[in-house]
Amino acid sequence: MTDAAATKLSVNLNAIALLRNRRDLPWPSVTGLGGQALAAGAHGLTVHPRPDQRHIRFSDLPEIRALIDDQFPNAEFNIEGYPTEAFLQLVEANQPEQVTLVPDDPVQATSDHGWDFRRDHDLLKPIVTRLKKQGMRISLFADGDGDADTMKLAAETGADRVEFYTGPYGGCYDNPKEEAKLLAALGASAEAAGEYGLGINAGHDLTVENLPALKKHIPGLLEVSIGHGLTADALQYGMTETVKRFLRACGNSV
Prior knowledge:
This protein has 254 residues and is α/β, with parallel strands linked by helices. The protein has a single domain (8-249), classed as Aldolase class I (TIM Barrel, Alpha-Beta Barrel). Helices cover 46% and strands 17% of the residues. The chain has helices at 14-20, 30-39, 60-71, 85-94, 117-132, 148-155, 167-171, 176-195, 211-217, 228-237, 239-249, and strands at residues 8-12, 44-47, 76-81, 98-101, 137-143, 161-165, 199-203, 221-226. It has an 8-stranded parallel barrel, surrounded by 7 helices. α4 (85-94) links the parallel β3 and β4 (98-101). α2 runs parallel beside α3 (60-71) and α6 crosses α8 (176-195). The model has no long low-confidence stretch (mean pLDDT 95).
């Protein structure tokens, strides 16, 4: 169940797909482990289909859509990516509940920065409008650096939410002073986002250990998307127990 102040958990399947793609074999099963995660209480599944299909393949998307529709109708599908026309058509074909737009270069190993909302406003606004007309919630990847103007510009695109890039926070697990500095900045960004009517998601290098402090600084945190840390823990604890651990760290009753 999700408590009033709890944060929803979306399990990112990219790392599972990356492991599968090391061999021309159908295991580990992306939908199989995704189904385990949802059965354990996860609120949704996230994928980031990159142009080279190095982890999630385009053919995975309709299978994940069907898994949710047929077995977990209360769960959400979140598709992330840079909004090329090809990506937008992929999204429109699979109708996720949420689309998270990220400013990735296609060759990047992973997302590592938020949008420059001043520079990219004219790119983002019509895309946000296009997807929202189809009933999708739109989240924009953003740097949680404490700059209130950034949140104002993000809101002006018409997006529903921002997803704070928490990579720097996750990366300072052994540096308490830097961790405190980054948490303060994320909290300030969250406060500004709320003032401009934006909901708040977060993702990147989040763990069972660092989620509680993040939630303390962002009391209104709606959703986290977690892949690498969750998949690493699943190797040790199994997917079902790992999801429950992350749910508890997000404030959910399990």
